[in-house]
Amino acid sequence: MYINKIEEDLDCGIRVAFKIFGGKWKLCILDAINRGITRPTDIQKDIRIASRRVIEMQLAELLSYGVVEKCAEEVYPKKSEYEVTSFGKTIIPLLTQIDAWGTANAAFVKTRQLELEKIAIG
């Protein structure tokens, strides 16, 4: 995990939230685990755009902050699963609201994206 040389302001709630949940795929990973997709390979299949390495790195960060926990079985081949901790479950209602907002505004965003692409092409 990257460590800043400049002291962070962790008195700001938004910065604290972004410290833990900031990252392109962390909320998607958390949503997948909350929906019952617990194995890293299955999470990666659910979030096809993200590489396996990125999924593993962001899982490790969520694990280090206690948002998820890893349950590893001593079998061959090694089997590990993740589950949301009680601390991690505190973000789920907000995640549900973010999902609802995104769903409600998806058509507008898609339209705007096409307009921006047309402008970029010229």
Automatic annotation (TrEMBL):
Which one Pfam family would you cite for this protein? HxlR
Q: Does Magnesium appear among the keywords?
A: no
Location of the HTH hxlR-type domain: 12-110
The record's Gene3D superfamilies line, in alphabetical order, gives: Winged helix-like DNA-binding domain superfamily/Winged helix DNA-binding domain
This protein's UniProt keywords = DNA-binding, Transcription, Transcription regulation
**Residues in coiled coil:** none
The source's superkingdom equals Bacteria
GO MF annotation, one: DNA binding
| InterPro entries assigned | HTH_HxlR, WH-like_DNA-bd_sf, WH_DNA-bd_sf
Task: Cite the SUPFAM superfamilies for this sequence.
Answer: Winged helix' DNA-binding domain (SSF46785)
Q: Which PROSITE patterns match?
A: HTH_HXLR
Q: What is this protein called?
A: DNA-binding HxlR family transcriptional regulator
Q: What is the lineage of its organism?
A: Bacteria, Pseudomonadati, Bacteroidota, Flavobacteriia, Flavobacteriales
